[in-house]
Input
Amino acid sequence: MSPRTRRLSALALAAVPFAAWAWPVAEPALIRLPFFDECDSIDAIPMRQHVNYNVDIQPIWSARCANCHVEPEGGNAAADLFLDPPNSWFFLYNEPSSQDPELIRVVPNRPWQSLLFTKLNCDVVDIGVRMPRDRQPIPIAEQALVHDWILAGAPETDDDTIFRARFELRG
Ligand code: HEC
Output
């Protein structure tokens, strides 16, 4: 190896750690897909393209998840999932399950990868039981609303256009 080539290769080698540091590498998310079975069909419900979290979704939690996740008895939300306004969104969006951190509560754009939706829609769920626990399943129209909200990117507000740009059609 000539001194010139050696100098050049030394330079190239020195650049490697810098390139590794500067190059944005997309870390594969450490998630596993939730298992589910015996799910309700939401096909009959017309699709909603604009779902406003505070107007459409929060009232479902407030009405149907009370005592356990909303104003929880003794202040301890079941599975550390607080669904009280105004912070419930932060306990859902890309948040790992407190029971199995490889499962994600809400995976934006992916209802069937979201533990939340599968636990509202299916009798057989990956972890624990169908929600709301010990109560009737929530109405199909509300299940579809949760589905469509996640599919639209699970925006925190209605005018979250960054997320809505990635919208795909259901089915
Ligand atoms: C009667 C109490 C009760 C009600 C009502 C209830 N839950 Fe739960 N929830 C629990 C318990 C207990 C767990 C932990 C065991 C399990 O996953 O089944 C849980 C777990 C969950 C989880 C998994 C959280 C995690 O991090 O693993 C989600 C999501 C969830 N509930 C959503 C809801 C939603 C949405 C509602 C209302 C539609 C609701 N639950 C109503 C008691 C309840």
